[in-house]
Amino acid sequence: MTQSTHGCPCWYELATSDLTAAQAFYAATLGWTVVDSGMPGMDYRLAQIDGSMIAGMMQSQAEQPQAWTIYFAVDDCDKTFAQATELGATGLTQPADIPNTGRFALLTDPEGAKFGILQPLPMDGQGGAFNQSKTGFGNWNELLATDPAGALDFYRQLFGWTLSRSVEMGPDMTYHIIAWNGTDIGGVFAPMQGMGGSRWRPYFGIRSATTAATEVPKSGGKVLRGPDEVPGGALTLQILDPQGIELALVGPS
């Protein structure tokens, strides 16, 4: 019997104003090979490493501003969509099929953070987009939530996530680590003043945080902060890509 992946991060999607520039930046920063998906009537590009698909890239539209979106696998897209809206989420798109991929929908949670759900079809390949042991893959998923307690309860009911532990990061910040099936997959915290509203932020694995801190600006991006050491000895970088889209990187020194 195939084990359920319900609630596991499974895909990352970039909406950007400049696909060509974004493709060059992420290829240089994360080692991605980016190819055309062949999707009729749409320039949708696929980022991959050694045959494993990690992310999609597309042109941003007025109804879909520039940003990274994290998708979470679900057993039943329509059922999960209905449950999410009952719990206070807002549907941005109704559940729909993607040929040869699965059934998806986009929502914002009760705090206004956008996320996606995907009921994937069985696929050939080398593994999922979220793999904490590999560089270039999704390694962590961070939610900035104006109401962390409410956000934790929403996702607990929707995806079955549990609170692994809470870490005091300072007098005004508590970092809540979330787990899926016993594996820590991300964190939730309240943004401090000036950090913006509720949103998801992906972390991608890199070979060297100190090298990335130097190379990101050379490739047209901007380092907002870091390298910062986090529990476990890894270093993180908060960055903007050349189009000003927020994300983070994590890896050894």
Provide key terms for this protein.
253 residues, nine-stranded mixed β-sheet, eight-stranded mixed β-sheet, 4 helices, 17% helix, globular, 17 strands, alpha+beta
The fraction of residues in strands falls at 35-45%
Cα gyration radius (Å):
17 Å
What oligomeric arrangement do these chains adopt?
A: single chain
Structural class of the helix and strand makeup?
alpha+beta
For the biggest sheet, the summary is: 9 strands, mixed
**Nearest-integer average pLDDT:** 94
Number of helices: 4
Distance from first to last alpha carbon? 40 Å
Identify the overall geometry.
globular
What does this molecule look like?
The chain contains 4 helices and 17 strands. It has helices at 19-30, 77-86, 148-159, 209-218, and strands spanning 9-16, 33-36, 45-49, 52-59, 67-73, 90-91, 96-98, 102-108, 114-120, 138-144, 162-170, 173-180, 183-189, 199-205, 222-229, 235-240, 246-251. Helix content is 17%, strand content 43%. The strands form 2 sheets. Strands 1, 2, 3, 4, 5, 6, 7, 8 and 9 form a 9-stranded mixed beta sheet that branches. The model has no long low-confidence stretch (mean pLDDT 94). With 253 residues, it is α+β, with helices and mostly antiparallel strands. A hairpin with a 2-residue loop joins strand 3 (45-49) and strand 4 (52-59).
Give the SSE layout.
Blueprint: E1 9-16, H1 19-30, E2 33-36, E3 45-49, E4 52-59, E5 67-73, H2 77-86, E6 90-91, E7 96-98, E8 102-108, E9 114-120, E10 138-144, H3 148-159, E11 162-170, E12 173-180, E13 183-189, E14 199-205, H4 209-218, E15 222-229, E16 235-240, E17 246-251
Parallel strand pairs: 1-4, 5-9, 10-13, 14-17
Antiparallel strand pairs: 1-5, 2-3, 3-4, 6-8, 7-8, 8-9, 10-14, 11-12, 12-13, 15-16, 16-17
